[in-house]
């Protein structure tokens, strides 16, 4: 990296900055965990109600005296928050209320992500990288994509890295091996209970490992445990995953900036180009490599009947969400 590049500040926007994921995420971004030595201009985009709390977080950021933290902006105006942004973490979303239908949730989020997509389209930097964390993350990213035609398909992504990390951790514990020795995990589909964490291509120190994992454990424990881990955390912790979600978001964005290792890939949700039978435009999780700053879906993997069934089930759920969004006139 040249001195010039190192000295140019990167503008990072975090929506939902006053929330619990934001509270873990902002400090790590300011510490240089995503962009290395580049100074950071941090834009905290919150609702009017969340702005005061965001100010408190900004005070704590100041108190850390981060050498790389160049400037902090707090705003409720999307056009201001996304102005010149190089990396946008879209964490703020409308949570599901008790008794609320999924269609209502989709509609409420459509009203957030449509205008945010338009603002990103108008004012973000040309090289913007967008990561949607707020749920329903895949479909929110789809709404954003529909409202931001200037931004390339592969630059609008949703977070399934937490599911990917959870899957790696479960297998590492089962085999009693360091998590770092495992490569080529894949999560397909939606960031929801229908997701398919897939060990078919998983390797342990470069050797296939799927046959060491019995089918009963995979279908009876591993897949449901990873897919429902979010609910398990809520049950035990009393609140939803926050630090692990922030950590995964950092992983996702850092890999996008520095690239993935040659012998590995990660799980990324992005608008489909038709790969693996996922209808074009549906935002699904795929195995992806980052090459020269661009996500590429890993091609040529053989998909057996067991995998096909599970990928199709999750993609069917995504297609239903997308149909509901269209029916509500949100795209
Ligand atoms: P919190 O409720 O703690 O924080 C959300 C924040 O977003 C609040 O401060 C709120 O004021 C703000 N907000 C709401 N609408 C906004 C808007 N239009 N513009 C800017 N800010 C807005 O939630 P938190 O625990 O931080 O979770 C945030 C989102 O992440 C939720 O939608 C949650 O479901 C989702 N998650 C996604 C995960 C993933 O892997 N994709 C895992 C963790 C998490 O469940």
Descriptive overview:
The chain is 43% helix and 18% strand. The chain has 331 residues and is an alpha/beta fold. It folds into two domains: 10-158, 3-Layer(aba) Sandwich (Rossmann fold), CATH 3.40.50.720; 161-322, L-2-Hydroxyisocaproate Dehydrogenase, Chain A, domain 2. The strands form four sheets. Strands 3-2-1-4-5-6 form a six-stranded parallel β-sheet. Strand 1 (10-15), helix 2 and strand 2 form a beta-alpha-beta unit. It is globular. Residues 1-5 have low confidence and may be disordered. It binds ligand NAX. Residues 15-16, 18-22, 45-47, 50, 91-93, 95, 112, 133-135, 137, 159, 162, 191, 230, 240-242, 245 line the site of ligand NAX. It is an enzyme of class 1 (oxidoreductase).
Write the layout of secondary structure elements.
Layout: H1 3-7, E1 10-15, H2 20-30, E2 40-45, H3 51-63, E3 69-75, H4 78-81, E4 87-90, H5 102-123, E5 129-132, H6 137-147, E6 156-158, H7 161-175, E7 182-183, E8 186-188, E9 196-198, E10 203-204, E11 207-208, H8 215-227, H9 229-237, H10 243-258, E12 266-271, E13 283-291, E14 294-297, H11 305-327
Helix pairs in contact: 2-10, 5-6, 6-11, 7-8
Ligand NAX binds next to α2.
